Amino acid sequence: MRDAMFKGEKINFTENRAVYHIGLRNKDNNSPHIDDQDVNKDVNDVLKHMKQFCSEIISGLWTGYTGKKITDIFNIGETITNAESAKEWFLSKAGDPSHIAKHFVALSTNAPKVKEFGIHESNMFAFWDWVGGRYSLWSAIGLSIPVFIGFDNFENLLEGGHFMDKHFK
């Protein structure tokens, strides 16, 4: 089973999916393709996007619609109901729906729905069905972690996970 996981095979039999968290922290960039997806390229692209976002938030370059530095990060959770509730509350304070783009980011793979919600696609961070559950701190789902600890420390976390992956392989 372990070898199959490292090869990106579909070992989640109930959902017919790969279980490939290791691809999120594979610093050797030798991940297999999964369903014709170039895992290394896609993961590295998202990590680059996360790094830029974290840098802009931490430095204060990313400001809210008021021009003030973002100081608090909230993870809404998985359901659209929670996101809609947060959006409704935000709009009751901010008024203009265009302000959503300055305060909301999306962790999603559904670009049309993200745009419909009011979030610009450049503020969308992708993840894949082989991440499993959407609770993986190693993926964009864990975006609040590098915002809090800094991206360099997040990369150290990924490297530590990769070290353990190699140890268990």
Automatic annotation (TrEMBL):
Any one of the GO CC terms: cytosol
Keyword Ion transport: no
Transmembrane parts of this sequence: none
Pfam families given in the database record: PGI
Protein name according to UniProt: Glucose-6-phosphate isomerase
Cross-referenced InterPro entries: G6P_Isomerase (IPR001672), Phosphoglucose_isomerase_CS (IPR018189), SIS_dom_sf (IPR046348)
Any one GO molecular-function label of the UniProt entry: glucose-6-phosphate isomerase activity
Key words, A-Z: Gluconeogenesis, Glycolysis, Isomerase
GO biological process, alphabetically ordered: gluconeogenesis; glucose 6-phosphate metabolic process; glycolytic process
